[in-house]
Amino acid sequence: MHDGTPLGNIDGITRINDTIWISDWLAGDLMRSDGSNKQHLGQGLADIGSVGNILYAPMMMDGTVNAWQP
């Protein structure tokens, strides 16, 4: 992270255009690599991925997949 704050359990990394997105499985956080736009989606956020401009976020504890255009 840009401020030196360590991340806990990085589980997924994907890129959409010039933005790199990172997920933390244990904390359930999704954020940009610069630490901005941090969103708490819930514990179990798994291997995120993207196709085009759509970000996919599997929620392993819920058995669902969220998809949206960030």
Task: Give the helices and strands, then pairings.
Blueprint: E1 10-16, E2 19-24, E3 29-32, E4 39-40, E5 49-51, E6 54-59, E7 64-68
Antiparallel strand pairs: 1-2, 2-3, 3-4, 5-6, 6-7
Question: Rg, please?
Answer: 11 Å
Specify the biggest β-sheet.
Answer: 4 strands, antiparallel
Uncertain runs are none
Distance between the termini: 20 Å
Give a brief description:
This is SMP-30/Gluconolactonase/LRE-like region domain-containing protein. The protein is mainly beta.
Describe this protein's structure.
With about 70 residues, the chain is an all-beta fold. The protein has one domain: Beta Barrel (Thrombin, subunit H). It contains no helices and seven strands. A four-stranded antiparallel beta sheet has the order 1-2-3-4, with no helix packed on it. A hairpin with a 4-residue loop joins strand 2 and strand 3. It is globular. The model has no long low-confidence stretch (mean pLDDT about 85).
Tags for this model:
70 residues, SMP-30/Gluconolactonase/LRE-like region domain-containing protein, 7 strands
